[in-house]
Amino acid sequence: MLDNLKKYNVILASNSPRRKELMSGLGINYVVKTLPGIEESYPDTLQGEQIPLFIAREKADAYRASIVEGELLITADTIVWLDKEALGKPADREGAIRMLRMLSGKSHQVITGVCLTTREWQKSFTAVTEVKFADLTDEEIEYYVDTYSPMDKAGAYGVQEWIGFIGVESISGSYYNVMGLPIQKLYGELKKL
Predict the structure, then answer these.
(1) DSSP state of 85
(2) Average of pLDDT values for 43-70?
(3) pTM over 0.85
């Protein structure tokens, strides 16, 4: 599948083990290349889908000078959007607990921005998934944070982990988007290249 990608050396610019797992599931050859210290901030005026799209493009721009002919770079960023507030990765244990308390008993959106970049062009898109959390006890939240250390995850949770098993009541949209990469939508975009 995706024979059209054979003309590219595909690069996934991500340290995320979940994104690597999902990319591997597509059965395409790719390499992982990361640059240290890429800024993930954004202007305060951005809202919802604009935020991860902006950050995915910023990540791509950080690599732009090093992209050579025949390379296809994939960058992505994921946020949790709750009550008009973006929840990124928590800074520490207390931040993770605070985020999970905010999500408890509520619906939120998981939004991922993806950017495809070559030397000649750039294309980007977003995916949005609605997630409903059950009411979580402080004991459940603290157990999850202390056992799974979700500091590398937007909104301080991994849907594929214990908290997803016991806390996620429903999902509307891509499950894989909640993991960090809307792989079905990415596949559709890659088919068009």
Answers:
(1) E
(2) 96
(3) yes
